Amino acid sequence: MERIQRLLKKANSLPMQSGVYIMKDKSKKVIYVGKAKKLKNRVTSYFRKNTSHNQKTIMMVSKVEDFDYILTDSEFEALVLECSLIKQYQPKYNILLKDDKGYSYIRVSKEMYPRISEVKQKADDDAEYIGPYTSSWAISASVREAQSIFKLPDCNKSFPRDFGKSRPCLNYHIGRCMGVCTGKISAEEYAETIEQALTFLQGESKEIIGIMQQKMQEYAKKTEYEKAARLRDRIAAVQKLGDKQKVVAGTYKQEDVFALVRGTKKMCFTVLRFKDNRLQESENFIIEDNPDTDEAVRELLLRFYAMRDDIPPRVLLESNIEDAALLEDYFSDKAGRNVKIIVPQKGEQLRLCAMCRQNAAQHLALYEGKSMKQTTALDELAKLLGLKAPPAYIESYDISHTGGQDNVAGMVVFKNGRPYKKAYKRFAIEGFSGQDDYASMAEVLTRRFKHYYEDEEGSSFKTLPDLILLDGGKGQIHAVEPVLAQMHIDVPLFGMLKDSKHKTRAIATGGGEIQINAVRSAFALVTEIQDEVHRFAISYHHLKHRKNSVSTTLTQIEGIGPARAKALLKHFGSLKKIREADVGEIAALGSFSPALAEKVKEALK
Questions:
Q1: Which sign, positive or negative, has the C-alpha torsion 354, 356, 358, 364?
Q2: Do 2-89 and 556-603 come out as alike in CATH topology?
Q3: What are the beta bridge partners of residue 425?
Q4: CATH fold of the domain at 255-369
Q5: Any bridge partners for residue 270, and if so which?
Q6: pTM of the prediction?
Q7: Domain ranges of the chain
Q8: CA–CA separation, 281 vs 272, rounded Å?
Q9: In contact, 267 and 63? CB cutoff 8 Å
């Protein structure tokens, strides 16, 4: 406490001026570097009480023993200095992207029938190496495309040594290999094909189509129709690939597309890089979660371009960030030309952002061992509801009754986007009789969080949810909000609204509605939760209703009160089983005389 007071006092002495602050630990090691428009406001926020810091910030503050600061003339200068200091010190609590992708080469073996392959490093051999290239993903894909288009062999045979020694493989028979092993392809024709493939790999698709068309006509004039047909097929394959690439092509010649998807503990930062209107590179970075999305995106962009010299004229983001204009100035200054940060609202550019987000969700899902569907849905739901993080543990409640009779509630739990049935709970409404859904919901939530405070460790009630969804609108929300406040439960609370056909249509807040139909994954998840909690609540209501109906039938028998009716049902389970029992079995229960047992049998005939 003394340390925090000392740091707060020092922070209060800072000027209301832009600059950079440098946090240090006991050993005077730099553990965090940040920039601020107003140093005093920013630095004091770390050491004040009752601030809503995320876990990472709380951990960082606990390690701070002292801090330095450097004043600047503008926020832009502060940003430049912040980048320089982070690069210099590599502080533990700043977002640091590890650039470990290395380089790739295209290898062309030195033999009569050369092979083309992608390798990570040069070897000390006679092979020809083309590169280096920064994206192994792009080179691997390109080599596979070249092998497919030019029908190059990918087997382990050596030519001409293995000519005619075995039957051609399946690839030859289905038209995926030119069949060098048959001995019908001369070394000259094969060398010509390799040259065409290498021209294609170096991005000269238009040039190679022109060369092949000219060669095809020459073969046709010489009546070498088989060779001409092979070139015709290659030309068609290159053109088809070009059409296919247009599906993931950028509208602009060069641009980078970024997406940030948050999981339960980590988040994935993904970039798709377009050059010459083609997707050339895809990179994914798994990093620690940061609930402040604006700050996270700003830091990630700065760290990414600190590792890259080629900043494109256009940078696409999913949503606006506070420092966008400042980043534009910084990137423009670094690139030596104008750089724009754009948040597309429609069309092809918006589709590219969605594709980038889908890639990030898939990568994060694989890392966390979840499906992409669940990762995307939870991330979309968090953004839609303004939550600090995707809700890993969701509780949902619904009330069920028949005209105010047999009032019950069901509570279902979705953990990481999936039903978690071992935590489901059933509640029989006890506080009143008659129909009052609002009072029922308030009673259920009161009892649920009473368990949270009073149960022993190990009870599923001891887990505090990340989100509560009530089946209903603002009436249910207003009934429950005082309960949560009184019991000091700080959990986001929303309702689920249905249309006239009992289908999910929107999320209810305390004062309005959030439409979710357009957000496909989140909509599907909320619909699943609403359907599941309704099914669970109504199935319990039907069970209770049946038991109460049976109990009423039994208590109409002279001499059978509620206690004896309950004993009969507990032992036999149903009216059918009681009917099938003999008098001796009923009398054996203890509180039943043979005469009373006989009366029960007679009444149930």
A1: negative
A2: no
A3: 411
A4: Nucleotidyltransferase; domain 5 (3.30.420)
A5: 259, 284
A6: 0.61
A7: 2-89, 104-246, 255-369, 385-545, 556-603
A8: 6
A9: no
- Residue 447: the pLDDT is 95
C-alpha distance from residue 169 to each of 112, 156, 193, 424 (Å): 21, 11, 20, 57
Q: For 378-387, write each residue's pLDDT tens digit.
A: 988 998 898 8
Reduced to 3 states (helix: H, G, I; strand: E, B; else coil), residue 375 is helix
- Superfamily classification of domain 556-603: 5' to 3' exonuclease, C-terminal subdomain (1.10.150.20)
- 82 close to 42: Cβ distance less than 8 angstroms: no
C-alpha–C-alpha distance, residues 419 and 562, integer Å: 37
Q: Does domain 2-89 have CATH number 3.40.1440.10?
A: yes
Residue 273 three-state SS:
strand
Which pair of tokens denotes residue 147?
A: 């092998």
Residue 446: predicted pLDDT: 95
Q: Where is 236: in which H helix or E strand?
A: helix 225-246
Whether 262 and 390 have beta carbons less than 8 Å apart is answered as yes
Q: Are strands 504-508 and 513-515 parallel, antiparallel or unpaired?
A: antiparallel
**Predicted pLDDT of residue 48:** 87
Tokens 């005939």 appear where?
Answer: 605
List the structure tokens of 387. Answer: 């939550």
The values of phi and psi at residue 69, to 5°, are -150, 155
- Look at the block and give the residue holding tokens 């910084």: 330
Read off φ and ψ for residue 242, nearest 5 degrees. -60, -40
Smallest CA-to-CA distance from 349 within 234, 248, 251, 488 is with 251
Judged by DSSP in three states, 479 sits in: helix
Q: Which three-class secondary structure state does DSSP give residue 460?
A: helix
* pLDDT for position 72: 94
> Which pLDDT tens digit goes with each residue over 79-116?
999 999 998 999 999 988 865 555 678 898 988 999 98
| Residue-wise pLDDT tens digits, 181-208 | 988 889 998 998 888 888 877 766 667 7
Q: Which contiguous run of DSSP H or E holds residue 381? A: helix 372-385
Report how far residue 529's alpha carbon sits from residue 393's, in angstroms, rounded to the nearest whole number.
12
CB 197 within 8 A of CB 116: yes
Helical (H) or strand (E) element with 446: helix 437-454
User: What's the rounded Cα separation, in Å, for the pair 158 and 166?
Assistant: 12
CA pair distance 599, 216, nearest whole angstrom? 102
Domain 385-545: CATH class, spelled out: alpha beta
Interior angle at CA 604, CA 602 and CA 605, nearest 5: 70
Separation between Cα atoms, residue 146 and residue 158, nearest integer Å: 20
Strand order through the sheet with 255-262:
278-288, 266-275, 255-262, 314-316, 340-342
- DSSP conformational letter for 180: G
* CA distances for 93 relative to 24, 33, 53, 80, 264, angstroms: 11, 8, 14, 19, 19
CA distance 320 to 438: 39
Q: Please, which residues bridge with residue 394 across strands?
A: 414, 467
Phi, then psi, of 133 in degrees rounded to 5? -115, 145
Average pLDDT over residues 254-275: 88
Paired with 267 in beta bridges are 262, 287
- pLDDT for the residue 205: 62
Please give the C-alpha separations between residue 59 and each of 41, 62, 295, 519, in angstroms, as whole numbers.
20, 5, 17, 35
CB contact burial 185-198 (16+ within 10 A = b; e otherwise): beeeebebbbebbb
Pairwise CA distance, residues 302 & 80, whole Å: 10
